[in-house]
Amino acid sequence: MVPCDISMSNLSAALQDVNLLYLDGYSHEMALSVGKQADLMKIPILVDAEPERTKTELEHLLDLSSYIVCSGKFPEKWTSISCIPSALLEILVQYPRARFVIATLGENGCMMLERIEDDSGIDAVDIGNVAESLRLKVHKDDNLPTCVSSKFMRLSGRGHGTIHGRLLIGTAEKIPAPELVDTTGCGDAFIGAVLYGLCTEMAPEKMLPFACQVASNAERSARAPAYRGDLMPACPST
After folding, report:
1. What is the structure's pLDDT at 179?
2. What InterPro entries would the database entry show (predicted)?
3. Of 96, 126, 172, 228, which is the most buried if we count CB atoms within 10 A?
């Protein structure tokens, strides 16, 4: 589709009952048109920032984003900062409307930087040091996904800006080799779980392990044992 395929009145009507919009940069002209209309209607937007997309395809979508999810390759490609925590901070500095950014890290789980509005003048803490301290708190013997979080604080990185927020690390499930079939679609499964978490107002500490568990389940064979039901929020009946 291209923007001229749909009138603004029809687009507004289509978005009337939407609570959250997901965009991934494909058909970027149409995506931007929909995103701008959603922004006018105060609809939050999650952008899937894939490293294959160009700046032309993504930069204006990221300007509108409320939430950003990306792969582990994207932060360095976008910011030229090799340290992932510092690169995530730079992304939030570049896009001040984004409330959080999550990088998926494959078998290493994920990392999330969440922003809160705070004008306190406290000294900034290096986000790289915060990430290292969080990694030491991760229980390496846990087979199921877990999450560790820093306190809310002012954070600085290798760029020029600072934000007030917190860093979270989510671990991935350790899947036995016989149960591992294919990682295709795991990123989409992760993002779907994040969208569900946002729609159900799930706390990040619960959302990250849930999303990692859903992604892990996408990798399994049909013979694999079902994952723990207590990690899966109750779904409304249809």
Report:
1. 63
2. Ketohexokinase-related, PfkB_dom, Ribokinase-like
3. 172
